[in-house]
Amino acid sequence: MRLIETSIKRPVGVTMIILAILALGFVSFRNLSVDLYPDIDLPIAVVATSYEGAAPQEVEELVTKPIESSVATIEGVETIQAQSQPGSSLVIMMFSTDTNLDNALLNVRESVDQIKGFLPTGANEPSVLRFDPQQMPVMWVGLTGADKATLQNVAENDIQPLFERQPGVGSVSIEGGVSEEVRVVLDQQRLNQFGLSSQQIMQSIQSANQSISGGVVSRGTQELQIRILGEYDSLDEIRQTLIQTPQNEFIRLNDVATVERAETEQTGLSLVNGEESVVMNILKKTDGNTVAVSDEIHSAMEDVRENLPEGVKLNTVFDTSQFIRMSIDSVVQNLLLGALFAVLVLLLFLKSFRATLVISLSIPIAVITTFTLMYFTGETVNVLTMGGLALGIGMMVDSAIVILEHIVTYRERGYSMIEAAKEGASEIAPAVIASTTTTLVVFLPIVFVEGIASEIFTPLAITVAFALIASLAASLTIIPMLSSKMLKKLSAGNGRRYWFDRLLDGVIRVYQGLLRGALRFRKTTILVTFIVIASSLALIPRLGLAFIPEADQGQIEITVTTPSGTNLETTSDVVDRVNTIMEKDEDVIESSYVSVGGGGSMGMGMTANTASYMIQLVPQDERDLTTEDVMQKWDSQVQDIAGADISVNVLGAGISTGDPVQIQLQGPDHDVLSQIADQVVTVISDVEGVHNAGSSTDEGRPEMQIVVDREAAAEFGMTYQQVMGQVSSQLNGQIATQFRTGGNELDVRVLTPKEERDTIEEIENLKIMTPTGEQIRLETVASLEQVRGPVTLTRSNQQRQVVVSSGLVGRDLGSVMTDIEDRLSGMEFPEGYSYSIGGQAEDMMEAFGDLALALVFSIFLVYAVMAVQFENFLHPFIIMFSLPTMVIGVILGLFVTGLPLSIPAFIGVIMLAGIVVNNAIVLVDYINILRRKGTERFEAILEAGGNRLRPILMTSLTTVLGMIPLSLGLGQGGEAQQPLAVVIIFGLMFSMLITLVLIPVVYTLFDDLSRKILRKS
């Protein structure tokens, strides 16, 4: 081949090209983004709308349903999920994976604009946003050491703007702090004396705090703008605000109200390691890099610490980049270990340090070239892509081994170094290219198959493909070039390594003896192989199924839910009791963060009756208990806390697609769905492996409904809106204006004293002013009814839905779902009500279906490539008999290691389809060569088997040993690659052992069959 000849004739030019590629590779690697997993581009759009003061039922009927109907007909929409909470609506649209989200967002905005005018008057304009379910804060940063108002001020004015200016930062939110405001607390008795209402006070304050333009006046050649100043400069000016009474008299605001500067009512509480704090959550941009953003924030923190008020401390609470760094470091270590094992195998077989060095040099060159290709195709450095490199380490040297061995064969025949390199490499190059192609083509279906499995593992497939292409290019250029310069003398096999030669000769003799027996008893060989395959298939039900192994990063999540309507103080008391339990194991806790009544996003936040913990445990080597052990221990202890629903779960670092178990109940009536959900929770809680089963419903939030008698109100000349406006103003307070002081802008809130609106009787006695100035009590035109209303109403595809979900402990997802479906099939559902499976179970089954299709296409492509290589349909068909044998190793490997069949394991099976045929290709190809030279069939098979066993063992062992570090799941984040590596190791080894005996037998059977057909014809 011309490429090989050129590389041998021009070693300086090849060397310069290699150096340029290495330099480019180093630059590319430094500029590659680093993250834990590849970004999953799920096209999801959200329509968020607020409707202050409305109950969930009103929100659903007046806001959610119209929006649902408007977006349901948009092209590409697969699922519509909707949530209606008090005062807010959220409609989530999930599009098919091939949808262009930018175009879809335009269509959503157009559809929403068409029904905007039909929404109720109090509803704000809907916001249309893109949504990333994987978007989690990169870091949590805590401020401590001062009162909350000071910490909030420092966070808002000094730190938040600085953080948001950092490259890659999307947004920074603040939790746990309190702001200041100016409160105008009305004296209702004084207001009644003067015949004033809260609305009149509001209007007076608004009109008094204004600066207006007075036009323009000329002065010489200039035009001066006249501005009439009227904004408040101090609290005293607010107190002196003039208010006109119905009797046309003027009084001061402080005659009917108390004006004070105070903290806003606390709605949330944040504790860091048990200390009250203000916490900032940093989100990265969609295309941002987690590690880079973390570095920028840490750098900004160093700058801001110098200017913090005395006593105020700024510390990192959680940093997700730490786990990413450790995970990448672990994969790199596994990669280096795999490369070392592969080099040792080569040294053992080749018995030549120079020959080993020639092949070993191709590994770093191929790896660095892969980084260059990754950079230009937009891939990132993550656990999966680096795992792909680690998986490819052993396969990278396969091409180099075959080419070098052929060159060595020519050297042993007496050829010069240059001639041996040229002739040996050129002769074997077509077979090497074909062998590598069979491995590459299996990845094509993974790239083109849709679904989450393709989204996740396409980067891995692309990385392995890049590595194999780079190693093939290195084998065809660098190996011949280096061989022509370095293979001056070859080892005679004496000395310390002679024992290995004798061992290998013994293995070859045993193999040839086994092969003779198999060829004499061909039917028995086929039958035994069939029985072994069938026996292994019988183990499949005992394997279980799983989605994607969760990486254990030592994090635990605790959720506390007290009865709906519980205030912040009561929920905090429960949190204190949970803290007491955790303090007993403080030696295993590195840091903890709890948010009480805060958090949430897009208006669907937490309420005062909820609290959420994040606990980071110390590194695993510093504690005796695993993360799951700690979780189960705490979970059993917190169940003794009365008055709250508390769940403890392991927070994995996997690619989350929802809860593992998710049962979606659909039907027309929310109350009936709640009852069914309670039954389902009871039924599935007894299933082994189900952990913390619960439903999306609760007992309902207690509410006091004010029912306005519209006719009675009309008799006093008032509308429904006028009555509720005054009631809302007195109960909630209203922002009248803003007061600027010291660079801050404070709200001026007009409200009724808390002690005058605490009880039902006081609310009934609230004074309502009629248009004539008459003061009447609220109970004159309205009645109060105490009811329990749902906190959240959920809909799916325009139908009411309640979701029952749970976690998993100690059992695989497939087995648990089988038991759950058996239980559900025995339940009787009312007419019009049904259930469906969602969450990880649904995604798992869809992914398995997609990958099964990809496997079928991969097998077809492998056959097609071999048919082109052999220019024959029969021999590739014979070689394909090596594929069923890999099933034995796959199933036994998973069974022995106790791993379920997961998405990574299935990817390993697809990769095996392209790897296991290589041994059969080498064997059948050499048998054909010997037969063409006139060797009798039986002798040709024995000679080919003995001759090809050495390179088959070398390539198989380098691949297997290169993956052993990954198969052990060592280090952080190793769980994702472990099933894949186990499947390839066991599948390849068993397939190799059986193929070496089975394929010659199948070859003879089909050879005899073809002879009979030819004789008949």
Description:
This protein has 1017 residues and is an alpha+beta fold. Strands 1, 2, 3, 4, 21, 22, 29, 30 and 31 form a nine-stranded antiparallel beta sheet that branches. A six-stranded antiparallel beta sheet has the order 14-13-18-19-17-20. The two termini are 40 Å apart. The protein is 53% helix and 19% strand.
Chart the SSEs and their pairings.
Elements: H1 2-9, H2 11-31, E1 44-50, H3 56-71, E2 77-85, E3 88-95, H4 101-115, E4 127-130, E5 139-144, H5 148-164, E6 169-175, E7 180-186, H6 188-194, H7 198-208, E8 212-219, E9 222-228, H8 235-239, E10 242-244, E11 250-252, E12 257-263, E13 269-272, E14 275-276, E15 278-284, H9 290-305, E16 313-319, H10 320-350, H11 353-360, H12 362-376, H13 383-412, H14 417-441, H15 444-448, H16 452-486, H17 498-520, H18 522-537, E17 555-561, H19 568-583, E18 589-596, E19 610-617, H20 627-638, E20 645-650, E21 661-666, H21 670-685, E22 690-695, E23 701-708, H22 710-715, H23 720-732, E24 734-741, E25 744-751, H24 760-764, E26 767-769, E27 775-777, H25 778-781, E28 782-789, E29 793-796, E30 799-808, H26 813-825, E31 834-838, H27 839-870, H28 874-879, H29 882-897, H30 903-915, H31 917-932, H32 937-967, H33 978-1016
Parallel strand pairs: 7-25
Antiparallel strand pairs: 1-3, 1-4, 2-3, 2-29, 5-15, 5-16, 6-15, 7-12, 8-9, 10-11, 13-14, 13-18, 17-19, 17-20, 18-19, 21-30, 21-31, 22-30, 23-28, 24-25, 26-27, 29-30
Helix pairs in contact: 1-16, 2-12, 3-4, 5-9, 10-11, 10-13, 10-32, 11-13, 11-16, 12-13, 12-16, 13-14, 13-16, 13-32, 14-16, 14-27, 14-30, 14-31, 17-32, 17-33, 18-29, 18-33, 27-30, 29-33, 30-33, 31-32, 31-33, 32-33
